[in-house]
């Protein structure tokens, strides 16, 4: 078998595998499961990452005109694909156990270097010619060429980013594992060891991709392409079955006869909090109640719920679980009811008869009258004006 045939087979197989993995992640539901929105969101991110690789493989074949031409040193497309894959895999894995951290804003923030390098490289190529380099002696002589310099800097930036992603993942994993101390269970699957293994496996594949930009030889490229075939298909199967972990945790929560079930979109950290002893949650909720009764921070329109965990000195997931198990509400809904209750008390006081609805709304912690009226009607089944006129 000649190198041309092997080259075509490698790329065709890997592309098919990536597209198959994408289909599995998007459309395969394993058994009769509880569909968790956090888990489905992670699957969609991974499906997008896998689809990008499939598109990259097809574009590579097209631009090379189906001929076995190796990538050059510090190839920009290779670094871009490796960087985007590492970013998406990192946040999709963190998302499984800490949704509050894996926000769209943070993903875009970490994607900023790649976006800036892409714009800089595209602009430089419009002015200067980007010379393909296949030997390190040539690369050193052309490193002052702006496109070559940008490619080299992007390569270094990706290596630094990989270290940042590893540190980030391990930090969030440590936070999650710290919650297990209060859970009396011997179930090893709660430690999510398979997620940790998946992260380092994905990081290894990212470094394999990066090696294409450091070792521009066709045999190496074909080997890495075959690794893609195995990795992406296996990862698709793994995630299609990961829903069983959510299902098992929810089953355990129901077995504890919890007064309220966790929210449908609860991530693994929040589910773990529901497995902790009731005494811990009751004690924390009493601390929250005492703080609200004494300080009444919710009456400040600028009060942010995100500041509450730091003020109380509790993990955000533990805090939301304590409120959820005591009231059946989210922290946001709990604060909303406190504000509406306070405004109702103000409306009933005779000395407030001349105060406007807008003034009452602002004094109750609302930033706009429309938001106040909408939520008052939702909870009290009447408008503030009608509620006041009844007294």
Automatic annotation (TrEMBL):
Residues 282-390 form the HTH araC/xylS-type domain. Pfam families: HTH_18. InterPro entries: Homeodomain-like_sf, HTH_AraC, HTH_AraC-typ_CS. It comes from the Bacteria. Keywords: DNA-binding, Membrane, Transcription, Transcription regulation, Transmembrane, Transmembrane helix. One of its GO terms (molecular function) is DNA-binding transcription factor activity. Gene3D superfamilies: Homeodomain-like. PROSITE patterns: HTH_ARAC_FAMILY_1, HTH_ARAC_FAMILY_2. SUPFAM superfamilies: Homeodomain-like. The chain crosses the membrane at residues 6-30, 42-61, 73-96, 108-129, 149-170, 198-216, 222-242. This is DNA-binding transcriptional regulator MelR. It comes from Parabacteroides merdae.
């Amino acid at each position: 078998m000649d190198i041309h045939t092997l080259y075509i087979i490698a790329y065709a197989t890997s592309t098919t595998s990536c597209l198959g993995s994408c289909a599995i992640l998007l459309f395969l539901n394993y058994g009769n499961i509880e569909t968790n929105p956090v888990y489905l969101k992670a699957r969609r991110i991974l499906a997008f990452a896998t689809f990008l690789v499939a598109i990259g493989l097809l574009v590579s074949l097209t631009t090379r005109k189906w001929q076995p031409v190796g990538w050059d040193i510090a190839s920009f497309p290779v670094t871009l694909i490796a960087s985007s894959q590492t970013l998406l895999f990192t946040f999709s894995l963190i998302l499984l156990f800490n949704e509050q951290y894996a926000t769209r804003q943070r993903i875009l923030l970490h994607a900023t270097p790649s976006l800036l390098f892409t714009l800089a490289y595209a602009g430089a190529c419009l002015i200067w010619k980007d010379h393909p380099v296949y030997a390190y002696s040539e690369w050193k002589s052309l490193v002052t060429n702006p496109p070559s310099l940008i490619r080299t800097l992007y390569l270094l930036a990706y290596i630094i980013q990989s270290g940042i992603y590893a540190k980030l993942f391990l930090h969030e994993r440590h936070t999650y594992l710290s919650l297990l101390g209060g859970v009396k269970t011997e179930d090893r699957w709660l430690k999510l060891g398979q997620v940790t293994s998946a992260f380092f496996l994905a990081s290894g594949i990212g470094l394999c991709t990066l090696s294409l930009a450091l070792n521009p030889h066709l045999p190496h490229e074909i080997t890495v392409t075959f690794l893609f075939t195995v990795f992406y298909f296996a990862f698709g199967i793994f995630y299609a079955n990961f829903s069983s972990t959510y299902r098992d945790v929810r089953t355990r929560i129901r077995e504890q006869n919890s007064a309220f079930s966790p929210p449908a979109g609860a991530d693994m950290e929040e589910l773990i909090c529901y497995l902790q002893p009731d005494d811990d949650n009751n004690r924390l909720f009493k601390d929250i109640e005492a703080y609200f009764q004494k300080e009444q921070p919710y009456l400040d329109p600028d009060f942010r719920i995100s500041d509450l965990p730091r003020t109380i000195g509790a993990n955000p997931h533990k805090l939301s679980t304590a409120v959820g198990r005591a009231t059946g509400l989210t922290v946001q809904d709990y604060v909303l009811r406190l504000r509406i209750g306070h405004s109702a008390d103000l409306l009933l006081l005779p000395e407030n008869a001349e105060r406007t609805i807008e003034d009452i709304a602002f004094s109750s912690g609302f930033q706009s009258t429309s938001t106040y009226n909408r939520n008052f009607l939702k909870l009290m089944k009447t408008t503030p004006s009608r509620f006041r006129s009844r007294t």
